[in-house]
Design goal:
Helix content is 57%, strand content 11%. The strands form 2 sheets. The protein has a 3-stranded mixed β-sheet. The protein has a two-stranded antiparallel sheet with strand order 3-4. The radius of gyration is 23 Å and the shape is elongated. Bound molecules: 2-acetamido-2-deoxy-beta-D-glucopyranose (3 copies). One 2-acetamido-2-deoxy-beta-D-glucopyranose binds next to helix 3 and strand 2. The site of one 2-acetamido-2-deoxy-beta-D-glucopyranose has 2 residues, from loops. Keywords: Disulfide bond, Glycoprotein, Secreted, Signal.
């Protein structure tokens, strides 16, 4: 690709005496750089479909393993995570895994998993609601406001979830159907597996991984200054203003 680009660039330079760039015949090269894209009249398309995707691959993967009723999880989500989402979401790929210190047992008689949670069955219910919301609304922009709302509001799990759903444009009827279905049960099981497979194994919640890694030091920094940590980890070319402020 680079060879043909170089050749076509040289060709263009020869023909035009280096003054302008012609659009290459092969559309494979149209988004190679801004000048070529301009010559081909496809700057908007390149920005949207090619360059944005490349920038997307630089995103820092932030994964949060948590359980819905743990006070430290609530605190972390309502402050650090929410702030990071509001200020630097363009460089972060947020993933939420609502399971935490729960345990599961498969019951052959019902063909369902039964979950046992640190803060009781209310927490299992909350975890399942989060699981269904994330699955129904996979875009972070759609599910994180709900997660934030429920984690920062005290009260009965079902009541809070209903209110938060309404506030954050989540269709609670769909969520309820998922929660009551074998699909919801299976989705929760997948989070159990993902949590149990952590390396190193998680020892507490909230438990953070950044680009798949976890260290004690990183965890402490995340809970103290998540924006700073994510900015420091980001290696892409387009740090948001909030990151530059922190440098
Ligand atoms: C974001 O994270 C999810 C789950 O960890 C992964 O499947 C996806 O590829 C990631 N996206 C980017 C742009 O890194
Ligand atoms: C997620 O939602 C936001 C806001 O509605 C939108 O700009 C973005 O393109 C969506 N992302 C994906 C991957 O659909
Ligand atoms: C984020 O995760 C995705 C999918 O797992 C991976 O392709 C990408 O390289 C990761 N990004 C970083 C910066 O590690």
């Amino acid at each position: 690709m680079y060879t043909s680009l170089a050749l076509s660039t040289i060709l263009v330079f020869c023909i035009h005496g280096g003054l302008t760039i012609d659009c290459p015949k092969s559309s494979a090269n149209w988004c190679d750089n801004r000048e070529i894209a301009q010559a081909c009249g496809v700057v908007n398309q390149c920005t949207k479909y090619v360059w944005a995707v490349a920038a997307d691959n630089d995103r820092v993967n932030f994964t949060l393993y948590y359980e819905t009723l743990c006070p430290d999880c609530r605190q972390f989500i309502s402050t650090q995570v929410w702030q990071a989402f509001q200020s630097i979401s363009s460089i972060v790929n947020f993933t939420f895994v609502p399971y935490g210190n729960a345990r599961e047992v498969y019951r052959p008689e019902t063909q369902l998993y039964q979950f046992y949670c640190q803060h009781g069955s209310e927490e299992c219910y909350g975890n399942l609601i989060h699981t269904c919301v994330i699955s129904l609304y996979p875009n972070t922009t759609a599910h994180l406001p709900f997660i934030y709302c429920t984690e920062s509001t005290k009260g009965d799990v079902e009541t809070v979830a209903g209110k938060c759903a309404e506030k954050t444009s989540i269709d609670y009827n769909k969520v309820s159907s998922c929660v009551q279905s074998p699909v919801g049960n299976q989705l929760q099981h997948l989070y159990a597996v993902q949590t149990e497979n952590l390396q190193p194994p998680h020892q507490y919640v909230p438990w953070v991984t950044i680009n798949g890694q976890h260290t004690e030091e990183m965890e402490q920094e995340a809970e103290r200054d998540l924006v700073g940590l994510l900015c420091k980890t980001y290696k892409g070319s387009n740090p948001p203003a909030q990151c530059k402020k922190n440098l």
